[in-house]
Amino acid sequence: MAALDHRTRINVDFVLEDVCKALSRSGGDHESRKSIAMKLLQAAENGHTTLDDLETIARQAMQELTRKKSA
């Protein structure tokens, strides 16, 4: 895993916290949060480091988790 610069780490942490607020209301768990975090880190390593990019990726991951849980 490549080292991320300080600003990118802050962006990833911010987006993860923001998106996972909804998980706590819907019975989120550690595994869900971990899954979203891994997708964010992979995206950041691939150059998607802006708040907008990371938020889009996190929200897509959240939707994917929601679909899996409802299936």
Distance between the termini: 32 Å
String of helices and strands: HHH
Uncertain ranges:
none
Number of strands: 0
Rough shape? elongated
Question: How many separate helices?
Answer: 3
Helix content: over 70%
**Could you report the average pLDDT, rounded to the nearest whole number?**
89
Structural class: mainly alpha
Largest sheet: none
Strand % is under 5%
- Gyration radius, in Å: 12 Å
In short:
This protein has 71 residues and is mainly α. It has helices at residues 6-25, 30-45, 51-70.
What's the layout of helices and strands?
Elements: H1 6-25, H2 30-45, H3 51-70
Molecular structure report:
- This protein has 71 residues and is mainly alpha-helical.
- The protein is 79% helix and 0% strand.
- The chain contains 3 helices and no strands.
- Helix 1 runs antiparallel to helix 2, helix 1 runs parallel beside helix 3 and helix 2 packs antiparallel against helix 3.
- The longest helix has 20 residues.
- It is elongated and about 35 Å long.
Task: Please name the defining characteristics of this protein.
single chain; 71 residues; mainly alpha; elongated
